[in-house]
Amino acid sequence: MEIIVEKLNEDEFTVRVQQNGEMTQHNVTVSEVDWQKLTDKMCSKELLVEKSFEFLLEREPKESILSDFDIMVIAKYFPEYPDVIKKMI
């Protein structure tokens, strides 16, 4: 599986997940406040997005991931997300 993160601007990213010749595309928003809250500025926003997709893909197929979402939406579906992502980074 390949996760490709493309930075569109300071807060918006396009993510492509490729597996078995099939690809999904997702638009993710990461605000400065959320980035600081989730990472304590210990990594780039791009790495946060990549690790967040690793987190999601451990729990659901790529086709189930929303196509357009704010990074904090993950915590609504998976309450453990903020704690787990801090450990992953």
Structural class by sheet pairing and helices: alpha+beta
> What does the overall shape look like?
globular
Proportion in β-strands:
25-35%
Radius of gyration, in Å, reads 12 Å
Q: Can you count the helices?
A: 4
What percentage of residues falls in helices of 4 or more residues?
25-40%
Order of helices and strands: EEEHHEHH
Q: How many strand units?
A: 4
Q: Can you give the mean pLDDT? A: 97
Unreliable stretches = none
Q: What characterizes the major β-sheet?
A: 4 strands, mixed
Strand order of the largest sheet: 1-2-3-4
Strand and helix map with partners:
Blueprint (H helix, E strand, L loop, with lengths): L1 E6 L4 E8 L2 E8 L2 H8 L5 H13 L10 E3 L2 H5 L3 H8 L1
Parallel strand pairs: 3-4
Antiparallel strand pairs: 1-2, 2-3
Helix pairs in contact: 2-4
